[in-house]
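S.,

As promised, the pyridoxal-5'-phosphate run. Input:
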Amino acid sequence: MNDQHLRKLGERALAPETLMMGFGYDPFLSEGAIKPPLFQTSTFVFRSAEDGKRFFEVAYGLRDKGPDEALGLIYSRINNPNLEILEDRLAVWDGAEKALVFSTGMAAISAAVLSACRPGDVVLYTAPAYGGTEYLFDRILPRYGVGARPVDAAAPLEAQIAAIDEAIRTAADAGGRLAAVYVETPANPTNTLVDLAGLAAHLKTLPGEARPLLMVDNTFLGPLWQKPLQLGADLVLYSLTKYVGGHSDLIAGACMGRAEVMAQVGEMRTICGGVCDAHTAWLLLRSLETLKIRMERAASSAARIADHLRGHPRVQRVLTPGGPEADERQKAIFARQCAGAGATFGVELAGGEAEAFAALNRLRLFKLAVSLGGTESLASHPSSTTHSDYSTEAKRRCGIDDNLIRLSVGLEDPYDLIADLDQALGS
Ligand SMILES: Cc1ncc(COP(=O)(O)O)c(C=O)c1O
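Predicted complex:
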């Protein structure tokens, strides 16, 4: 039987991890292969000239797809079976109508943001955010007449709402709109949380034409521990390079949301060309089969390691989302919004850069590298690497001090990792 669209057994809704083994793929279209073969092809043969015409009409939006009509395969910048199966499966986790995969997380973020903006518009974003995202906002968007304003991720909801209202007013005075509110939560590298439901509720009170899109980078906790679309976001964004890919062997990104908004993002992907390649999509299908057990195991190890470090004499604070050191507001957001704390967190050591570097240089199992979410554990120094282009004042404001190291906990034995940290920190 062909069960590729089976989502329920009787009344029982099937869990995402179950659907990752077969959803969206018909083995009998591929000689019965249990796994989707790799469609390593640039283009697809049309059965007739009429088919080619019909496929392009739909792909280029010249007419709507018929109720039972599938979008024919055309060209791998537009569509490809590996991408389509991956997109169907990614959409399952986030409950999205439509998902699109990109060559990198930054390709997904830039396509989403550019698809929403016109010259004169403004984007409001929560800071800190991933360095590449802030670079796009502060240095690239202004070249195209789009302004970007940061708002502190740690500010109270009322202050963030006031910043939104102010940005709407000033953009309108200058003849533009606030096109998007862009949120990274938890924020990299401090794990500061932003109240998504609170922001979404405010945005819904605005009249349709003045309502900016709420875009959320869910790379740190998604798709297991946080579901932005269910909290009212319009678009959710991922660096699939991290937990979803999960093996530090690929680079990719995704954007998901309502079909209507995703149509604009899709136009941007097709024309600017930042599409994921078939081989990477194929690797991601493999990764999705183990996503839940990988993320759960990494998170339970991270919680154990964070607890151990909290009692260490060389450690000042451990920055897990909504953790014991967080203020009451952050704890309340965590309780409402997150189903888990993930496996990437900051550790503030006693001392400054010299002590942080000495500890990093002594690590034997943790590898010194940026990025996160892979099977192997990584350690980095945000102030001198991923966030090195922040001004001293911005680093101070966002809590990125020289004594902060960031750990991404992988799948090794957690007690081996604790032993590594203990020998690196000394007593
Ligand atoms: C939170 C976050 N978003 C986006 C990105 C960009 O992703 P990519 O490197 O896949 O372009 C990163 C990369 O580190 C990240 O940490």
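The radius of gyration is 22 Å. The chain has a mean pLDDT of 96.

- D.
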